[in-house]
Amino acid sequence: MKNRKDLTEPSYLPVAWEYRESIQEAIDRKMDGKIFFFNPNNQVDEVQGRTLKIEADAKDGDFLLTSSGERIRIDRIITLYGKVGAAYEEYNAFADACMDCLGGYEKDEI
């Protein structure tokens, strides 16, 4: 997945300071582990590696560079070494989606 420029991604969304702070802490501490994120196909993906730096791209947004060569948009990170990332709420919405359904029943049948 080194650089998937050929795929269309959603527009970059600014990331709250607490997520940036969490990423910077991981960089400073040279943390290594799993990062879960939405890839350019909007599917959940994962990478194993150490965080190296945040790279700003004026056109496409800010990216996290990893020791495995991955370039992950920071607004698409679901979890970073087990800590919640900027895209966690979007991911969690998938799990809660069924809570809104009626399980095949009509309202008057419940």
Overview of this protein structure:
This protein has a single domain (17-97), classed as SH3 type barrels. It contains two helices and six strands. The protein has helices at 17-28, 88-96; strands at residues 32-38, 44-57, 61-66, 71-73, 77-80, 83-84. Strands 4-3-2-1-5-6 form a six-stranded antiparallel β-sheet. The longest helix has 12 residues, at 17-28.
Detail the topology: elements first, then pairings.
Elements: H1 17-28, E1 32-38, E2 44-57, E3 61-66, E4 71-73, E5 77-80, E6 83-84, H2 88-96
Antiparallel strand pairs: 1-2, 1-5, 2-3, 3-4, 5-6
**Sequence stretches where pLDDT stays below 50 over 5 or more residues:** 1-6
Largest sheet: 6 strands, antiparallel
Helix content: 10-25%
* CATH structural architecture: Roll
Strand content: 25-35%
- Structural class by helix and strand composition: alpha+beta
Total strand count, please? Answer: 6
Spatial strand sequence of the major β-sheet: 4-3-2-1-5-6
Helix and strand run: HEEEEEEH
How far apart the termini lie comes to: 47 Å
Number of domains: 1
Compute the number of helices: 2
> What's the CATH C level?
Mainly Beta
What global shape is seen? Answer: elongated
